[in-house]
Design goal:
Layout lengths: L4 E3 L14 E8 L2 E6 L4 E9 L13 E10 L3 E6 L6 H8 L18 H5 L8 H19 L1 H23 L7
Parallel strand pairs: 2-5
Antiparallel strand pairs: 1-6, 2-3, 4-5, 4-6
Helix pairs in contact: 3-4
């Protein structure tokens, strides 16, 4: 992992709730958007991985967020960008959703995934062509599942086709002799 993604944690700046000024930019913590603020410290495409607090899902996989555009990230999430031209960040995002990271997490009541342990997570590196193909397929499925504007019309089309198939089969009769 340490060879696949560059870590921008040193650029994070936590801001207490009382010091935050409301605005248009998402303010990310370990488990996603916590607030919206009037300034940003990152601008681009990022893979955010929980560092402490919300670090591990119930199935052992990491807490991940995909962030694009102008954002602020506090010190509870690792900020990752592409480091190597051999690994696509979006591939890394999808792959990490399959990895049990519990053996990399320390701490009892306050789970923590420190940089050293995170960098030790093994990541397979298929060809860029295969990574792009995998990402395209998984992004399409993700949109079908999570984006109502895509998923719902696709589901409606599938049910309409199913209805027409059964309607035609059930309402086709042989002529009596």
């Amino acid at each position: 992992m340490g060879e696949a993604a560059a870590n921008l944690d040193s650029k994070r700046r936590p801001v207490t709730r009382s010091d935050r000024r409301g605005g248009e930019y998402p303010y990310f913590g370990a488990n996603g958007v916590q607030d919206y603020v009037d300034e940003y410290i990152f601008d681009g495409t990022f893979l955010l991985m929980g560092e402490d607090g919300s670090v591990v899902q119930k199935d052992g996989t990491p807490v991940l967020n995909w962030a694009t555009g102008k954002i602020w990230v506090n010190n509870h999430a690792h900020v990752l960008v592409e480091k190597s031209s051999d690994v696509r960040l979006r591939f890394l995002f999808h792959y990490l959703q399959t990895v049990d990271i519990t053996s990399y997490v320390t701490g009892g009541t306050q789970p923590k995934l420190n940089q050293g342990n995170m960098n030790r997570i093994e990541v397979p590196v298929p060809s860029l062509e295969d990574q792009d193909r995998i990402v395209a397929i998984l992004d399409k499925f993700d949109a079908l599942v999570n984006d109502l504007s895509v998923g719902l019309p696709a589901e409606l089309r599938a049910r309409r086709q199913q209805y027409e198939y059964y309607r035609d089969r059930l309402l086709t009769f042989e002529e009596a002799a």
